[in-house]
Design brief:
The protein is α/β, with parallel strands linked by helices. It is built from nine helices and 13 strands.
Length: about 350
């Protein structure tokens, strides 16, 4: 028998009478691999198996089992959610009931700050604690300089450089993965997530592939999967994401860009657009070097993207936006009359 606490069970949800809890380790078409007190087994999801937000079962979910049938998704304590790539506005739960989000990027290659900021915004929205893990330290000529730049940008987030080849830095990551604690690795292809998963597990749990000739990553992991680590932690390995679409991430953006938000709160006008208005604290900070203009641009881009997404999926938000635009147009029409 396995103690469910070693699988991350915190008893926040209770299965219905006659059912037992199991944790989803992998989702395949028509089948779930679940971890239970009796061990791992394959079960069939019920036809109505959906979480409270309407999404289906995800890796990390706790489900109620009756025999070989999963009949209910128990309430989630956290979830890393993105909008499905393409024209749809559907939500995709990448990992559920996680304590940590390991935002993985490589110390090699080009600029990564804007990409890390995007992942951190979604990670903060998940309800889990984000940590930035920078891989391939053995291939970087100046690790301290790159790590310093990321630490300066990733406010309030631990930044850990590692090498899956030499083992440098792995102990710091393992220290985060205490028994029963669950982390999900997220990041683009080719940054070394699979190699990191293998190094942490001490065995091959994920395939690895060489980087392409143009320097772009190849997908090594093809499905999300929950792995049990030797020290008792749990790790969700995820495929590389070509696109991380925002969902309802306003709070996450506010946390990831707390410095920009604090500056914006000091502007003379509450509706300041930060585009030349008098008394703009954001513009002043850019002018005197306190705020990187690229970081400000990244903030505006994510804010606009999150707002567009809210309007796509939230009827109330669309109604409020229409009312705001009507008020604005009315004020503009009345302005010439006031100047006479």
């Amino acid at each position: 028998m396995t103690d469910l606490s070693s699988l991350g069970w915190d008893r926040t949800g209770t299965p219905p009478p006659g059912a037992e809890p199991g944790r989803v380790a992998r989702v395949d078409r028509g089948r779930l691999t679940v971890l239970t007190a009796q061990g791992a087994r394959r079960v069939v999801p019920g036809a109505a198996l959906h979480a409270a937000d309407g999404t289906g079962p995800a890796v990390g979910d706790w489900v109620a089992l009756r025999g070989e049938l999963a009949v209910e998704i128990l309430p989630r304590t956290s979830a890393f959610v993105r909008t499905v790539a393409g024209r749809t506005s559907a939500a995709q739960v990448v990992a559920a009931n996680i304590d940590l989000v390991l935002v993985v990027d490589a110390l090699t290659g080009g600029a990564r700050l804007r990409r890390i900021e995007r992942y951190l915004a979604v990670a903060w929205s998940s309800g889990a604690t984000p940590v930035v893990v920078l891989t391939k330290a053995d291939l970087c000529a100046d690790v301290a300089a790159v790590v310093g730049a990321v630490r300066e940008d990733a406010l309030g987030v631990e930044v850990l450089p590692v090498s899956s080849v030499t083992g440098d830095g792995l102990a710091a990551v393992r220290d985060l993965l205490r028994p029963g604690r669950t982390a999900a690795m997220v990041g683009p292809s080719g940054v070394g997530k699979s190699s990191l998963a293998n190094a942490l597990a001490g065995r091959t749990v994920a395939g690895t592939r060489e980087i392409r000739g143009d320097g772009r990553g190849r997908h090594a992991t093809t499905a999300r999967e929950l792995h049990l680590l030797p020290g008792g932690g749990l790790l969700v390995d995820t495929p590389g994401m070509r696109e991380l679409g925002l969902r309802d991430d306003a709070e996450g953006i506010a946390t990831a860009y707390a410095d920009v938000g604090e500056l914006a709160a000091g502007c003379r006008f509450r509706d300041c657009g930060h585009s030349g208005e008098p008394g703009c604290a954001v513009a002043a900070a850019i002018d005197d070097g306190r705020l990187d203009p690229a970081r400000f641009t990244g903030w505006r881009k994510l804010e606009a993207e999150a707002r567009r997404q809210r309007l796509r999926v939230d009827a109330r938000a669309r109604a409020e936006e229409r009312a705001r635009l009507r008020t604005l147009h009315r004020a503009r029409r009345e302005q010439p009359n006031r100047s006479r």
